[in-house]
Amino acid sequence: MLALIASRIPGPVSETADRDPGFLTLVFACARAVRTGAETSFARRCALARAAGGPNPL
Q1: Cα–Cα distance between 28 and 35 in angstroms, integer?
Q2: Helix count and strand count (H, E) for the chain
Q3: CA-CA distance, 3 to 21, in Å (whole number)?
């Protein structure tokens, strides 16, 4: 469907400046990676504390 619409446009379309240039996508991807890494490292730290017989931080 997109190919049909694009083939009917007489010339190239100029995008406005307020469109997402990929920067926001990059920021959200980095934030997701940091959050996932933090959750993983916290779970690993809890497992080590449980294995050592220490208090459970949860």
Answers
A1: 10
A2: 2, 0
A3: 22
In angstroms, the Cα distances linking 46 to 7, 32, 43, 51 are 57, 21, 5, 9
Q: Are 56 and 46 in contact (CB under 8 A)?
A: yes
- Whether 20 and 28 have beta carbons less than 8 Å apart is answered as no
Q: Distance between CA atoms of 47 and 1, rounded to whole angstroms?
A: 51
Question: What's the pTM value of the predicted model, to 2 decimals?
Answer: 0.42
Question: Is residue 20 very low, low, confident or very high in pLDDT (cuts 50, 70, 90)?
Answer: low
**How many Å apart are CA 34 and CA 38, to the nearest integer?**
6
Distance CA 58, CA 55 (A): 9
Q: Is the pLDDT of residue 24 over 70?
A: yes
2: helix, coil or strand? helix
